[in-house]
Amino acid sequence: MWLRPEEVLLKNALKLWVPQKSSGYFVLQRRRGHGDGGGRFTGRLVGALDAVLDSNARVAPFRILLQVPGSPVYSAIACGELLNGSEVYWAIAAGATLEEINQHWEWLEQNLLHTLSVFDNKEDIVSFVKGKVKALIAEETRSKVAEQEEDPEKFREALVKFEARFNFPEAEKLITYYSCCCWKGKVPRQGWLYLSINHLCFYSFFLGKELKLLVPWVDVQKLERTSNVFMTDIIRITTSSKERDFSMFLNIDEAFRIMEQLADVTLRRLLDNEIFELDPGLQDPTQITKRDLEARAQSEFFRAFFRLPGKEKLHEVADCSLWTPFSRCHTAGRMYTSDSYICFASKESGCCNVLIPLRE
């Protein structure tokens, strides 16, 4: 899978990774403990830690890094040396299998390598690659949503387990579910996170011990993305009595967005006044679906991004390109249509945004 590019400090990180191949701008690495026979203590230790975690939550065994040639950190990565400095690199892809990561590597070689050579400075290279990867992530996300809706069999199996484990009334509708870890102090408990209309639920059965957590959305006082000593990105749920930390390797953005929507819908239903009026499609809780929540989140993003009135409803979103005279090229982005506006936002953040009132 493609990863949203972020600067990461390269301080002692190479102890856990082995270089497999490199090109002028990219490095493919394998995590120790995967495919090396466990000949060294570090490899055995890393492999054991990864084996404890579920395959959807653990660190992917393969990854691709972006590093501009010419800097000392690039040479050290390519040679597999260990650095003690605080240089940075960009992780742009990860894979559970060698076949998956090689597909990403081949795409980079075929679509980016010949283009990057025309840039004169490192900042332009990094900006260009980050923009391409973010566009790929957007396409990948839309494909995953479509696949999930077209194949309901896995959801049906999860629903049966959810009903058996928590014994809710039939009116308690399951919206979606994720594989994740719930942290108890310094110890992660691998299990399943279930998001329903009225509750956040977690179930784990590990080493003979069963753990069930039920958090009503009405009790949630704070919902945030944060970090702890072991994980750089976790979801923290705060109630009047406890804090719960959840971490996952995949789908953390989607999970957090759905949590926000469910908590917000619950709050609006409780207040039930003109200011916090529910959307018509969310009036009946038993009819709410994951698609409804995603559409609602997209509309809220659209209104906030273009600073439009709260009653402005988003109708369609389409990928397109806009001729931008200042750069003398077509800029890739998305067109949004609503009741009163046509809007455009470039895929590269901050490059070009356009808002056209239909009355004009």
From TrEMBL:
SMART domains from the UniProt entry: GRAM
Recorded hits in Gene3D superfamilies, A to Z, give: Pleckstrin-homology domain (PH domain)/Phosphotyrosine-binding domain (PTB)
Q: Residues in domain GRAM?
A: 160-227, 300-360
Cross-referenced PANTHER family, in alphabetical order? PROTEIN VASCULAR ASSOCIATED DEATH 1, CHLOROPLASTIC, TBC1 DOMAIN FAMILY MEMBER 8 ISOFORM X1
Pfam assignment, any one: GRAM
Q: Source organism lineage?
A: Eukaryota, Metazoa, Chordata, Craniata, Vertebrata
Q: What is this protein called?
A: GRAM domain-containing protein
Cross-referenced InterPro entries: GRAM (IPR004182), PH-like_dom_sf (IPR011993), TBC1D8_PH-GRAM1 (IPR036009)
